[in-house]
Write a structure and sequence with these properties.
This protein is mainly α. It is built from 13 helices and no strands. One of its GO terms (cellular component) is post-mRNA release spliceosomal complex.
């Protein structure tokens, strides 16, 4: 209020050094806002350092608004190339659920500043990103459909078809019906009988693949359920006997050893009868000791 700008910025510096997230978020927002309003592009390097410091402290789920403000600063007072670099960093830094929104803005700015070449580059890099920077399957399908529509408008029919083929493995025909409807409409408008049959063949193949995955998951779940049921039965039997599961297993092992020993011992039909062979063996051992 008294126009001691640097003194106020020093107070902000003390605040961001003292507090941690999530409490420091409001301090950073006010600090960056007032600094950019005060200096604009006059102290651009200092503003960049502030944004980098804020981003280094922010967890991934809190980084999105900081990246957007940083990119806006570069658009207004810096270079468009630097703004594109900030958007590219943001796509990889934010959580997977926020990446599609960043990509939409990134593509819009790329189309505004650099044209179709840069837009294609962004689409391809987004579709081919590997974990942990990849998109969710539903978001990747959306990107592929938009990219194919862009290529169709540009008259690149073969490129658009190749994009549909690439994305087909992510589209379960049982749930991702909008993808297959879009591809069907595309082939009706721009394809022929052979390309339409190829689309149907790929659809059947993908459906079979997802059916196999579902069957395998059901089998695995059944095996896990059987294993848990068997363990629960053992634990229940141990509780009924008043013993813990380990004691029950030890007792079972002891019973098994007793049965094995009984099977190895000479059998007789008379209760309490000891065979002569055993007695003679004992006598022979006594004689040796004598």
């Amino acid at each position: 209020e008294h126009k001691f700008w640097e003194d106020s910025f020093q107070v902000y510096e003390r605040g961001v050094a003292l507090f941690k997230y999530p409490h420091v978020r409001d301090i950073w927002v006010a600090y960056l806002k007032h600094f950019v309003e005060r200096y604009g592009g006059k102290k651009l390097e200092r503003a960049r350092d502030l944004f980098e410091h804020a981003l280094s402290m922010a967890p991934a789920e809190e980084a999105k608004p900081l990246y957007l403000e940083f990119a806006l600063l570069e658009e207004r007072h810096g270079l468009a190339k630097h703004a594109m670099e900030v958007y590219e960093r943001a796509v990889k830094a934010v959580p997977k659920t926020q990446r599609l929104a960043i990509l939409d803005l990134y593509l819009a700015k790329a189309s505004e500043f650099f044209g179709i070449g840069k837009v294609r580059e962004i689409y391809e890099s987004a579709i081919e990103m590997e974990p942990p920077y990849d998109l969710a399957d539903v978001d990747c399908r959306q990107m592929c459909m938009r990219y194919a529509e862009l290529e169709r408008k540009l008259g690149e029919i073969d490129r658009a078809r190749a994009i549909f083929v690439h994305a087909s493995s992510l589209a379960n025909p049982g749930s991702a019906w909008e993808f297959w409807d879009a591809w069907k409409s595309f082939e009706v408008r721009h394809g022929n009988e052979d390309t339409f049959r190829e689309m149907l063949r790929i659809k059947r193949s993908v459906a079979a693949s997802y059916s196999h995955m579902q069957i395998q998951s059901v089998v695995d779940a059944a095996r896990l359920s059987d294993s848990l049921t068997a363990r629960a039965a053992q634990a229940s039997a141990a509780n009924l006997l008043g013993r813990d599961p380990m004691s029950a297993l030890e007792a079972a092992a002891g019973d098994e050893e007793e049965r094995s020993a009984a099977a190895r011992a000479p059998s007789t039909a008379l209760k309490g009868f000891v065979s002569a062979g055993v007695i003679q063996q004992g006598n022979t051992e006594q004689q040796r000791q004598l």
